[in-house]
Amino acid sequence: MKPTLLILAAGMASRYGSMKQVDGFGPNGETIIDYSIHDAIKAGFGKVSFIIREEFLDNFKGIFEPKLKGKIETDYVFQSFDLKPFGINKEIERQKPWGTGHAVLAAKNQINEPFCVINADDFYGYDAFEKMAHFLNHEVSDSYYSLMGYEVDKTLSNYGSVSRGICKVGDNGNLEEINERTKVYMHEGKIVFENEQGILTPLETEARASMNFWGFTPAVFDQSESMFKEFVEANENNPKSEFFIPLVAEKLVKSKTAYFKVIPTSSQWFGVTYKEDKPIVQHSLAQLVEAGAYPNKLW
Questions:
Q1: 22 has pLDDT over 80
Q2: Which residue has the higher pLDDT, 3 or 234?
Q3: For residues 213 and 126, what is the distance between their CA atoms, to the nearest angstrom?
Q4: In angstroms, rounded to a whole number, what is the distance separating the alpha carbons of residues 28 and 44?
Q5: The domain 4-290 is classified under which CATH number: 1.10.155.10, 3.90.550.10, 3.20.20.80, 3.40.50.40?
Q6: DSSP code of residue 109
Q7: pTM score
Q8: Are 211 and 155 in contact (CB under 8 A)?
Q9: If 0-12 CB within 10 Å is exposed, 13-18 middle and 19+ buried, where does residue 175 land?
């Protein structure tokens, strides 16, 4: 059974106002999401599932169905505020959904095969999809998951500091912990992170950053549902709290329920952290097209 690509897109519409303004970055107005799906098809994924808010279903279908028809199966997962599907009989008022870990959990009745999770608006590079597809086809198990580990210098912005989950990797190549560094940037030719006191600490050049590109089997749904219930109980009066995937990973690793292989990739990651990043992303994609990595017109 071919693996599935699960795309976290429930936050997209709120950022863009409506799906029609999804930013074009490629030579023919392709979105970053288009490049991810193109890479996933080439790497052998069999289905793409979009995690969205239900009210944007028609918009998404209108944008993606014509492009993807006959190329890959599509499916839509709705992330909502309804907690009943997770055995929680409460209504909790919130502005924002419950986070990326909850978004993945929303797919529990729709995914029955190994799958990977990515952000909608990050460019990950073909190497990452190829390696993840290999892992999901040949290595994954209910206690052995993975995440892509990016070289930190290939994830920075020229326009300010970025937040990065820096992976501590054991000698066996497995994840030991993820340390969230909120201010990472280049300083005098070195990659540093700055703490709350303004103290700069260099990061090793070979340090690996998690860019929210994960590989799982459907076992993760049962493994994380009880965590989510506990999280909701502890945070029902904290409207800004979010149940993130790294939180799930950390608990699985600490409880020895599952291990995570940190798959190294040399791919250049890019995304739009600052509005000034947009022309850089456009230029980077144009260079990739020129080099023959992608066709001039994706679809």
A1: no
A2: 3
A3: 13
A4: 24
A5: 3.90.550.10
A6: T
A7: 0.93
A8: yes
A9: buried
